[in-house]
Amino acid sequence: MTSPSRDGGAPISVTLGEVVPPQDPEDWTRPLTWVVALGMLAAPASAAAWYIAAAPTDAARALPGTFLVAASLAAGAAATGATQLGWTRAWTATLGAGLFSALLVVVVGVVAASERQVGTASPTTAHAFAAAVAGVAGAGAASLAAAGVAGIGSRVVRFAAALVAGVTVAVGLVVTMMP
User: Fold this and answer.
1) Would you state the pLDDT for residue 1?
2) Contacts 24+ apart (CB under 8 A), 62-68
């Protein structure tokens, strides 16, 4: 068997269909890896904690937890995007993290629903959906801000710009959707 080379244009881990272990697997001791992971899991974790501690009983109006989940979704996406350099990577990482996080928020809301209803959604599902929609809109705004400031060297500045844009849009949309 021949050893894989970097000359063929294919990634080192895949050479002519032969899968070889990566030379340097992703190192989970790197702080930016944890920022990305925690950014994507912030909203689902806060939704799960909210539903376990005091699940909502009313789906008609926004509760503080709805704002928290939507804002943490946008903030987590902003944190994920702030780890990237280049406008395309910052934009796609922010938006991708927001979409993934929103999916998990809705899954947590459905799983936490104490009853299944026909015709109307349970309060946990309704709040999870509203927070996910608002959070994705916030992540969209954060991704545009992240793309705009991606060339700045400071991660803190990149994060702050995306954070302000994302959380503002997310909270504003929760107010609009659930008065």
Assistant:
1) 45
2) 62/127, 62/130, 62/174, 62/175, 62/177, 62/178, 62/179, 63/127, 65/127, 66/127, 66/130, 66/131, 66/174, 66/178, 67/171, 67/174
